[in-house]
Design a protein that fits this description.
heterodimer, A: 385 residues, mainly alpha, 3 domains, B: 117 residues, alpha+beta, two-stranded antiparallel ribbon
Amino acid sequence: MYQLSDKQVDYIFNDISARGIKNEDLQYNLVDHVCCIIERNFKENGDFEEFYLQTISSFYKKNLFEIEEETHLLINFKNYYTMKKIMNISGLLAVLFSISGIVLKFLWLPGAGATLILGFSIFSLFFLPMVFAIKVKQNKSLNNKLTYFISTICGSLLTLSILFKMMHWPGANIMGLTSIIVLFFVFVPMFYLNGIKNEETKQQTIITSVILILACALLLALINVKAMRGVNTEANHTNVNTTNLLELNKQVAENKMNLIANDSLQLNSLKNALSIYKNLEEIKSEFLKKHTNDIKYNNSETWHELKNISIFETESENQLTEIKLLGIDKLYAKLKPIDIKINNQNFLLNTNLSEQDWYNYYFNKQNLEQILQNITYIQNCLFKG
Amino acid sequence: MYICIMYSSELLKGSLKTIVMQQLKEHGKMYGYEITQKVKEISSNKIQLTEGALYPALHALEAEGFLTTETEFIGKRVRKYYSLTPTGQNKVLEKINEFAEFVSTMKLILQIETKKA
């Protein structure tokens, strides 16, 4: 049996320590274990260092630190494996559903909304919290735990806000803005101050912080502050909101009556305008009848509820079907010839856009209130001679 | 974490602590390397506990109060001997009974006796 010298034992001890084993008991165990193997199997005339390296490399898959990590996890985290499994499965499902949802959305196929809801919800409600729970158990530093907590909350909130925005559900903007502000003013400074202290992570911390700040700035640039103040930006070209919509309705009626009385437009144009006006009135009634069962749209209480009613699902097929059913698909063709005429080349009704863009501009992915506002706006323009 | 050479690690993952505790019950105090050699010998080389599986399990059992340790200096190095605590003595019996019951249930489910016949 080979006899190890003190120098060789010191060498083994230092090497094991340098490989990331910091737990003293585990260091003793591993040193003794390696020494036992060397004593029984090493031949006097062999290369000690080579034999040692060969032995120690049989202890792990990637690095020796795995053993300490595993020890720490077994001691502190009985449910670690279950959580790790949930994390892996939820991560995989989130990726699969999100990618499928995006593909369906891009191909204009039905089911995109439901798939994206599943993907984003699994990501923010299962995957991120599991990552947080595992990271917290792996890390002892309170600062790091707090950083993980804030990043998880922000990540979940941001994902949900994007989902809410896509589905036109209320609260998307406030969630998005809150998460970005917390990310920008709390998480990034904490992450930077934690990472900059360590010489090894200094460079990476600077790079990641810059990327994070830019990402926050880009996301903030996408948020419309006017929308946060309650002004309807999707339809802000109409420059009306729910409260003054009733006023606008009255104004349209007054304009119409004045024009008829003064006969200031040529008779044919007036006839066309009146016919379109009537047609649009019917469309508004149809929309209300179909989606609210209440055709009394002069009731201001009804108007306030309209903001929460999504007319068109994200699937474009549904939009087109509804547009066709209500006869809106013929609107562009009717309005284009009179738009220039009534508005002195100003294209007040935006018919200088292509037909597809025009429909997107006025009707795509908007709630019932916005659609009705836009139609009323068009009606109003018809009589602005 | 990877336990043996012959059986799938999944099969043995749940029984590692039982194996270790049974060795300590049989042989009194033992150190890590000794446990691996004993298991290897009894199983005719079919089960070889790796360091990556053994030490985390020993430390976890110690933290749970089933094992106690004593140290001995071998020249410049320290050797840690593990032995069962009274709680550990009871626990090992419980674990062995549980495992035996599991094996007999698995025999029924997999119809191992019938297949052999």
